[in-house]
Amino acid sequence: MKKSSVPNANGIPSSKPVPVYSCWASLDTQNLKDMQSTVGTVLEDTVTFVIRYLQGYEITNKLQISYKNKLYNIINIVPGEYDKEFTNIIAKAVT
């Protein structure tokens, strides 16, 4: 999702997330040990989305992820190191 200025019913521009790309992903949540070690850090309450490495769209941390009607801000993008099969996207739910 990318924030875009879209006019509302009154014609006033408002910022609204607009889909720019769609792909399959696996969602990994933090286990108890990770939750305890990330308390008070930027990684607190984060989840990891795992996608195939080569996508048809460049994913940046300026985008948001929409998953089950919930928005997530992208914190970090970790490309696969060995065979580059998968990319991990660390994200935090928008509150």
UniProtKB/TrEMBL annotation:
Lineage: Bacteria, Bacillati, Bacillota, Tissierellia, Tissierellales
Short name of any one Pfam family annotated for the protein: Phage_HCP
Domain of life: Bacteria
Protein name, as recorded: Putative phage head-tail adaptor
The organism of origin for this protein: Parvimonas micra ATCC 33270
